[in-house]
């Protein structure tokens, strides 16, 4: 990887370009920068979620995820470089199976609501989906390994499940269950 930053205000981006980890410069509108930015934004939102009261096991998992997202971002910043391991995708699959096993089946669509921590997890989920779309868009024009896309896909699913877990954890006293969508059509059909 390139040298670590020793100063932040370099002014080298004033011309609308930015440096990749391998030293090449690309326009700030480049698809690789969009993917990198979306992954960085996701990691920042997870940092906000970590500032909330959380069950210890969820907190530990999210800290691991932050490190893996940093690896994913590093991989996005250096074309052809591999930092995110296939084991990271497997770890998300295992977490999905573990947390899904504790939840009741969904009866209806749910709203991204409930406790503050659950709502933040839903924001993280939507940013993970955007990051996934950015990686897919980048892969249409450049070689990108499948693991970053797979990781973001699983992570968005896991964040949905964790939002449900956090509503049930009820650590702020405002949750307890999913917030169900009240469909006018379904209400009419059940009459």
From TrEMBL:
InterPro entries: CblAdoTrfase-like, CblAdoTrfase-like_sf, PduO-typ
Region (Disordered): 1-26
Reaction(s) this enzyme catalyzes, per UniProt: 2 cob(II)alamin + AH2 + 2 ATP = 2 adenosylcob(III)alamin + 2 triphosphate + A + 2 H(+)
Molecular function via GO: corrinoid adenosyltransferase activity
This protein's record includes keyword Phosphoprotein: no
Gene3D superfamilies membership: Cobalamin adenosyltransferase-like (1.20.1200.10)
Cobalamin adenosyltransferase-like domain: residues covered: 8-165
EC number of this enzyme: 2.5.1.-
This protein's UniProt keywords: ATP-binding, Cobalamin biosynthesis, Nucleotide-binding, Transferase
Family: Belongs to the Cob(I)alamin adenosyltransferase family.
Name listed for the protein in its UniProt record: Cobalamin adenosyltransferase
Species the sequence originates in: Piscinibacter gummiphilus
């Amino acid at each position: 990887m390139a040298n670590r930053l020793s100063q932040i205000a370099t002014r080298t981006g004033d011309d609308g370009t930015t440096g990749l980890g391998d030293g090449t410069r690309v326009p700030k509108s480049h698809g690789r920068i969009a993917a990198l930015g979306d992954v960085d934004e996701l990691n920042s939102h997870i940092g906000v979620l970590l500032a909330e009261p959380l069950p210890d096991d969820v907190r530990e998992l999210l800290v691991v995820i932050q490190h893996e997202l940093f690896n994913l971002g590093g991989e996005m910043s250096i074309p052809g470089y591999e930092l995110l391991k296939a084991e990271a995708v497997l770890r998300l699959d295992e977490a999905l199976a573990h947390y899904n096993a504790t939840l009741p089946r969904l009866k209806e669509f749910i709203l991204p609501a409930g406790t503050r921590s659950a709502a933040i997890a839903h924001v993280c989920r939507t940013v993970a989906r955007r990051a996934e779309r950015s990686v897919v868009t980048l892969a249409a024009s450049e070689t990108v390994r499948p693991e970053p896309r797979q990781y973001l896909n699983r992570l968005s699913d896991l964040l949905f499940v964790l939002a449900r877990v956090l509503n049930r954890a009820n650590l702020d006293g405002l949750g307890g269950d999913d917030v169900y969508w009240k469909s006018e059509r379904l209400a009419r059909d059940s009459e």
